Amino acid sequence: MEAIVGSFVLVAASEMGDKTQLLAFSLASRFRKPWVVLGGIFVATVANHALASSVGTWVSVHVPARVMALVLAVLFLGFGLWTLKPDTLDEDGGKPPRFGAFLTTVALFFMAEMGDKTQLATMAVAARYQAPVLVTLGTTAGMLVSDGLAVFLGDRLSGRVNMKYVRWVTAALFFLFGLVSLWTAWRG
Question: Which residue ranges run through the membrane (predicted)?
Answer without folding.
Answer: 35-59, 65-84, 96-112, 132-153, 165-186
